[in-house]
Automatic annotation (TrEMBL):
SMART domains, alphabetized: SERPIN
Originating species: Ridgeia piscesae (Tubeworm)
InterPro entries the UniProt entry points to: Serpin_CS, Serpin_dom, Serpin_fam, Serpin_sf, Serpin_sf_1, Serpin_sf_2
Protein name (record): Serpin domain-containing protein
PROSITE patterns: SERPIN
Record lineage: Eukaryota, Metazoa, Spiralia, Lophotrochozoa, Annelida
Signal sequence annotation: 1-20
GO cellular component labels: extracellular space
Keyword annotations: Signal
Domain Serpin span(s) in chain numbering: 57-425
Pfam families linked: Serpin
Transmembrane in keyword set: no
Length: 456
């Protein structure tokens, strides 16, 4: 019996040691643990900026085909206003808008509205060099319910992600004063540069989504000489225009060559080095059409990343542009059809009970003034929703003496804020004027991203 117990104890000890050395299979362990789905981390801001910039180039090409001569618009302003509208869309309407706005190929785990919120928070940030200060409002039509049964209330969406508080307007019974109120708001957010964004307002308008953005920047390298110089409209047609030049020395500026565009690119930074103007100058006098046709965001971003600082002997026109654009046909050309149809539009997320909503108009206005000290630019978009230093090589000549593309880009996010082209500058007197280095003005960059005007 003693022998039996000894054997039993030895076997028990052996089994215990064996079990202690056995490792559970990873596959079995995985089965034993509860399954947890891990979602990728999404940089919403970066994804939205990429979509916005793709839309910017699409918009540029389509506007360029419908507008003769000079052009100026703010793709950011248009994107922000339409993104709010997109927040109230469903079904085919939402799919068409997403495709046109370049939201359709975003990762499924990224959110458009979170991206805009992050981007606006960035653009609102201030420093000792510049200020970005938004001001939004949500104006609604009285006695018209905007409650909606969807999981996200439209008013909450615009206020949470687009910083748009609410206000009521009596559009139906006091259309004239409502129109004036909207225009006054835009004027106040654009330093009175845009005072008449809307020229008329239908009493049947349910709400108006408005975005305004202003920019005021001072060059890091100011021009101290203006003179009358040539600008080649074509190989056979040249005019004299007021051009700006550095009076002494050649500042170091980032420059690059883009063989795919058959063009060169130059960066003109504003003080603070957070915002810059870029000039895309075709290598050939009549090369603008080819450059516009070849515009591609991936190539453009790669070119910007590879630019290097070089001494630049820069001469460029002094110019001012102003333009109002009816974006409805442009957006239809980009595939945004249903939202403009009283029969097909699906904007039920905005609410208004059983009422049918559709977009009646999308109006955009932008101005820019480029001079010796810097740049001022403003833009506004309205969406009307109806119910139904070392030793350096010789300087590189960079005479902007032919039609060119320009755009203003916020450097941290890469967001294109303004974009346009100069085909024919104003003729000027042939007198050279020296401008002193004094007279600096306060640098101000103001962004008033989004306001929602609704029928009161």
């Amino acid at each position: 019996m003693a022998y039996t117990w000894t054997v039993a104890l030895l076997l028990a000890a052996l089994v215990a040691v064996t079990l202690a050395q056995v490792k559970v299979s990873p596959k079995i362990a995985a089965i034993q643990q509860p399954i947890r789905r891990v979602y990728p981390i999404c940089n919403h801001q970066r994804v939205v900026v990429c979509a916005n910039n793709r839309f910017a180039l699409d918009l540029y090409k389509n506007i360029a085909c419908s507008v003769d001569g000079n052009m100026i618009f703010s793709p950011f302003s248009v994107s922000a206003a339409l993104a709010m509208t997109y927040g109230g869309a469903s079904g085919v309407t939402a799919k068409q808008m997403a495709k046109a706005l370049r939201f359709y190929n975003m990762p499924w785990y990224c959110n458009v509205h979170k991206g805009f919120l992050a981007l606006m928070n960035l653009l609102q940030s201030s420093s000792t060099q510049y200020i970005l200060s938004p001001c939004q409002q949500d104006l609604r039509r009285r006695r018209l319910s905007f409650e909606c049964k969807s999981h996200i209330n439209f008013a909450d969406l615009t206020q949470t992600y687009y910083l748009s508080p609410a206000e009521n307007l009596d559009i139906r019974f006091d259309t004239a004063n409502s129109l004036q109120h909207i225009n006054n708001w835009v004027a106040s957010q654009t330093n009175n540069e845009i005072t008449n964004l809307l020229t008329a307002l239908d009493p049947g308008t349910g709400l108006v989504l408005v975005n305004a953005i202003t920019f005021k920047g001072e060059w890091v390298n100011k021009f101290d000489l203006t003179y009358s110089g040539p600008f080649h409209l074509t190989c056979c047609d040249t005019i004299q225009t007021t051009k700006m030049k550095f009076g002494c020395g050649y500042p170091m500026m980032k420059h690059g060559v883009i063989p795919a565009f058959d063009a060169q690119i130059l960066e003109l930074p504003y003080k603070g080095n957070k915002v810059s103007m870029y000039i895309l100058r075709p290598n050939h006098i009549e090369g603008l059409a080819y450059l516009e046709n070849q515009l591609n965001l991936a190539i453009l971003n790669a070119a910007i990343s590879s630019m290097t600082a070089k001494p630049i002997d820069l001469a460029m026109p002094k110019f001012s542009l102003s333009q109002t654009i009816d974006l409805k046909p442009i957006l239809k050309a980009l595939g945004m059809f249903d939202v403009f149809s009283a029969f097909d539009a699906d904007l039920h997320k905005i609410g208004t009970g059983n009422a049918k909503l559709w977009v009646d108009f999308v109006v955009h206005q932008a101005i820019i003034n480029v001079h010796e000290n810097g740049t001022e630019a403003s833009a506004a978009t309205a969406v009307g929703v109806c119910r139904v230093k070392r030793a350096t090589p010789p300087p590189i000549p960079y005479d902007v003496d032919r039609p060119f593309i320009f755009f203003i880009r916020e450097q941290t996010s890469g967001s294109i804020l303004f974009m346009g082209r100069l085909v024919k500058p104003e003729a000027a007197a042939a007198t050279a004027v020296g401008v002193g280095k004094g007279g600096d003005f306060e640098r101000f960059v103001g962004m008033k991203p989004d306001q929602v005007f609704r029928k009161g």
